Fold these 2 entries.
Entry 1:
Amino acid sequence: MTKLSIIVPCCNEQAALPAFYEAATAVVAALPEVEAEYLFIDDGSTDQTLSLLRALAGQDARVRYLSFSRNFGKEAAMYAGLQAARGDLVAILDADLQDPPGLLPDMLSRIQSGDYDCVAVRRVSRKGEPPIRSLFARGFYRLVNRLSRTQIVDGARDFRLMTRQMVDSILQLPEYNRFSKGIFAWVGYRTCWLEVENVERAQGRSKWSFFKLWLYALDGIIAFSTAPLAIASILGLLFCLVAFIAIVFVIVRQLLWGGSAFGWPSLVCILLFVTGIQLFCIGILGQYLAKTYLEVKKRPIYLIRETGGGGQDDPA
Ligand code: UDP
Ligand code: MG
């Protein structure tokens, strides 16, 4: 028997949960030699998600749930799930059926062949997504892969099946600013990529606003690259060089033709430009400082208010 843990982060998923549970259990029932546990992480839902989970746990001993004290974000939910999972194989799925459980048997057979430590899903199309969002997403992947040595696959979803060994490695990265797509890549191991078409959300709506995605992208770059810091210093050097050339130019002009008291408008422009660049670079510095600040505080990544399921009162 293989023990499989299925981790499902849920944030206000009352509409999608019943369909997910039905689909997932149907798929798992058809898998021979697999003993599944479902680990639902309620990420501070304000709807009926938690009571649905309590009910599921009551009727199915394979279901366990953790409920956070507030919304800590999907990254925290995935981390909590990985920590609580007991399986030899661990899968992470979204509750909205955008990660079709139907792919699990294929993923399982690939990982059981022994050639891979991880089977991950990437979408090759972004149909159904606002074009502007796709544009920025593509730009982000190009940028981050240029800036960082950790290569993040374009279109990679968080949907993946991993071996216990890889999960333990991921748990060794207890950083506060979690960017899982990067962490999965950083730990390495042999990953098999399944390419799928984008599946649109079954029920409810996406929790990601455009602004949230921006911040998430910034997190990703800062977490996996220090190149922006280097860019700031290079910009500084470049401006010193330009200034030096300008000084030589002004001195030579003064010696040859005299009269240097002109060029006030251009002076103001240069001043504004250089001040702008300076503030920009301080801003980059500030971003790293802020992340470091949050990191050194060593606050917990999530807080649990309630756990249940697993056929006992307090499984955690
Ligand atoms: N999610 C979560 N906490 C959050 C936001 C999302 O646990 O703060 C969960 C959500 O319930 C879903 C998964 O993460 O199971 C993906 O979220 P969503 O579908 O909103 O993102 P998208 O698929 O649009 O990227
Ligand atoms: Mg979704």
Entry 2:
Amino acid sequence: MAHTMVIFGASGDLTSRKLIPALYRVHQRGRLPDQTRVVGVSRSQFTDEAWRKQLAESTARFLGQEFDSSTWGEFSQRIHYHPGDIQAEEDFLTLAGRLEELEGGRPADRVYYIATMPQLYESAAAQLGKAGLADDSSAARRIVIEKPFGTNLETARQLNQSIAKVFREDQVYRIDHYLGKETVQNILVLRFGNSIFEPLWNRSYIDHVQITVAEEVVVGRRGDYYDRSGVLRDMFQNHLFQLMMVTAMEGPVKFNADSVRDEKVKVLRAVRQFQGADFADCGIRGQYQGYCQEEGVAPNSPTETFAALRLHVDNWRWKGVPFYLRSGKGLSCRTTQIVIDFREPPHLLFGEGKKSMPQANRLVIQIQPAEGIQIHFQSKVPDQEMSLRQSQLDFRFASRGQSMPDSYERLLLDALQGDASLFARSDEVELAWEIMDPIIAAWRSPAAPPMHTYPVAGWGPEASTEWMQEQNRTWFDVCPVIH
Ligand code: BG6
């Protein structure tokens, strides 16, 4: 069966920066199914040739040495352009005709990728429905929705309902690009493809879990969007929650879309909702110094650019094991890591009372920039009495010199092939907002915990370090451990 990927929002940044380079890389790797074509739709008036030329330049710029003109030449023949307005019914009718023509009247599976401004998602789904483009009686019809998926529970629910009027849930693919990162998938393999980790993966052996998504960048030119969003909406409700779900979920019965997502959703259902004093005690808010002077940001903006939260997953596996989630802009470096902090050994056998006290083991799963895992364990200092020191075992996920695929490569291919395992389901998105909404509301109310400012290029507010110390724990403030 042939495939057609229709990208709405074709002249936008996401298309040139991520989608086309990813599809081209998949083609270069020889993994793009034969007879796959890409059709861009937006209001700009391009011909196929003009769009191809523009994409050749942007793709070469974004991919650098990975771009080569001969494979681009082949790939670009698969690309077409159709001018159209996402709010104009008649444009969808002409689009339907163009797609038929390109497909030569033969059935082809289609993926409609909605890469427009979020305000247009509902309209896009509705117009596709009206033009009969969602009818999957002769071939698959899928819709991919970019993030953000709503800005709170109410808007997410409304968006789900509007889409559901046209597409069944199994036709809907909600992107969270963190799920397309290789190491996130590797967590599943680490946990469920080995027998040595899973027996320890519970409250009996784990003291707490830290999930950090640190970004060195500041908001830059995205001030206008960011100031309305803040770190809780921009990073927690989606990416950090996805990382938490994958870390905390039970083993699915099978590796298919519904089994995996059923288990992920159970994690969110078990997250204890904040009540009363929790809103102040279970988190730290911060804003980097200079944020209010960024372009598009209100002069006295109350938006947090850093947050740390302590969540509890109340089930048999995790009861009593806090999950610390933290993310911020303007931090020391770009690193995403999940740190499993194990309990201390139950009995001190070596060097009691001396400096070399046994320390807890730690498993660091580094998601990016380089991807790998590091195990921290105690070993003896050679040629000394029973003095101990912390040692590390490193595993780098990619072989030296091998480049890892971008998350969009995997996700676009999965959407073309109809595998929704790495996409968010409607209940998952709504539950995530259900947890996040009350925290966002409390942090915008007069009873909000204090906003701590922090200097750029550190690990966030000092208060965050102190907060952990009060709980007898320390953040793993380390820039990428695997290079
Ligand atoms: C996006 C956020 O979803 O994720 C950005 O809107 C953030 O603010 C980005 O910078 C981080 O993604 P990555 O893949 O670079 O970690």
